[in-house]
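Fold Annotation — chain and its backbone
Next Lines — sequence and tokenised fold

***
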Amino acid sequence: MSLIDDIQNNFIRRYGAVAQIIVICVGVYLILGIPKVILLFMGVKDSPLDIVYDFLVLFPNFNELIFKPWTIITYGFIHLNVFHILFNMLWMFWMGQLLREYQGDKVIWSTFIIGTISGGLAFILCNNFFPVGLNLRGASAGINAIVVAAATLLPNHTIFLFLFGAVRLKWLVLFFVALDFISITEGNPGGHISHLGGALFGFLFIYYKKQGVDLAQPYHWFTGLFESKPKPKSSPIKITHRKGVSTPSQVEIDRILDKIKAVGYDKLTTEEKQTLFNASQD
């Protein structure tokens, strides 16, 4: 229980949606991987867990997708081996924190899920032109969406790399996107195509968000159906006056801070920005 408490109270509370996605991916990997090792030592060659994998990974045709529509998302939480999940989770941790700082937890989840869907659809569509592989698994498409979204939002953000020194985020991400494109002709073409599908969504998401259009709105509407609505209080906002300046209550301040986490500071109204300024003077 101590380990669970540490994950919940330290890791998840500190890193929010980024930590949640990492914990889910690692948890699924361990839940499926540990029994597979045990069965191997028991001499079981045809593991029944293969049926579970087939139930969760994405296959490159629409016929499979029609009968197993959940696989367009679940494949993003299944990983092939320890190096696969290690590199994915490191990218998620590094780049996810950057995007979360400016856009909030809801954007991390929506970008990851829709990026995963976009990568899966690219994988299936390209199978009509050339064979892309037997199946698709891994969080790379969703993580690529987050990475490219961060680079589109903060292109000149500087990252210090060993041996290379300071590198702007846009050039680093552009290099890896180009590498995925070139690698299509090599091993695992389906994986690289899904990466590009996720990257495309990440770019379009931030590009249109800057224009005031939220491509993730359907996702937010859908997830909002399952969120519990807080009961309105009799006096949710209390305004006091100090030397002719209106001072908002803590409830109003918390509401504005939640909005910043969800959509960013730039989406605040003039009145909300003024409210935060007034509160900072107290």
Summary: The longest strand covers residues 158-161. The chain is about 65% helix and 5% strand. The chain has two domains: 2-224, 240-280. The CA atoms of residues 19 and 120 lie 23 Å apart.
